[in-house]
Structure formats: structure tokens, C-alpha cells
Amino acid sequence: MPLKIHNKVICLCGSTKPEWRVKYREVLETLTLMGNAVFTVVWFRGDFYGDFEQRRPLMEQVHYLKIRSSEAVVVIDRKAVGEHTAEEIAYAETLGIPVYFYDQVSEEKVTAT
Q1: Which residues of 70-106 are buried (b: 16+ CB within 10 A; e: fewer)?
Q2: Torsion, CA 3, CA 94, CA 62, CA 47, rounded to 10
Q3: Are 81 and 14 in contact (CB under 8 A)?
Q4: Taking a C-beta distance cutoff of 8 angstroms, is the pair 34, 26 a contact?
Q5: pTM of the shown model
Q6: Per-residue pLDDT of the chain (113 residues; tens, 9 = 90+)
């Protein structure tokens, strides 16, 4: 049975390869319309202007802050799990933050009251 996640702070995780850009947008929109506040990535590979490798430690530090600040982590797709995403999942789990894959989440929208 799909999970209904409402009124939570969620961090999205997954590959930042450009081919996942549309999926991130879909998941961000759906989870937001379900009443959640959602952290997501800032750049996809190839989007960054300047030396990405120089800034990568900062981007990773900020992403881990987003994970620590969240009540749940949602991985955008099971196929979007590489080495870094696996590390992020393990990190969230060590903090006791539940990790879900997007296909486990109900897409039921929340209506304003």
C-alpha cells in the first residue's frame, strides 16, 4: 500500500545526471501538492558555471544539512541510486530519518481547507 506523506519536510535524493531533471521536477511538484516542504538539488551535472569539483564539497555539505533538517528522505527513483545517493541513504538511516522511494508514495493531492 502506498504511503501518504503529508505536512512533512522532505529531502529529495537521487542522481544529478541531466536525464533525471524531469523526474526531480515531477517528484517535487507532487510532494509539494501533497502539502510538504521539499528540499531538492540546486544543479544537475553540466548546469554549474565554474569549477564544479572545487565547489562540490560545499554542495555536499549543504545537501547533508538538508537531510539532517528533514523528517523524511524520498529517493526519486530506484534506478537513480549511485554511490553518492547510497551514502546519503545510509546517512539518513543512521540519523533515524525514514527513507522512501518515490514509487512507495501515494500521489494523492492535498486540497486547501
Answers
A1: bebbbbbbeebbeeebeebbebbeeeebebebbeebe
A2: -60
A3: yes
A4: no
A5: 0.87
A6: 466 778 899 999 999 888 999 999 999 999 999 999 999 988 777 776 677 777 778 888 999 999 999 999 999 999 999 999 999 999 999 999 999 999 888 766 555 44
Please name the residue that has the C-alpha cell 549511485. Answer: 82
Q: What are the beta bridge partners of residue 53?
A: none
In this structure, what are the phi and psi dihedrals at residue 39, rounded to the nearest 5 degrees? Answer: -85, 140
64 backbone dihedrals φ, ψ, rounded to 5°: -65, -35
**What does the alpha-carbon distance between residue 5 and residue 62 come to, in Å, rounded to a whole number?**
24
CATH of region 9-104, choose from 3.30.70, 3.30.310, 3.40.50, 1.10.3470 = 3.40.50
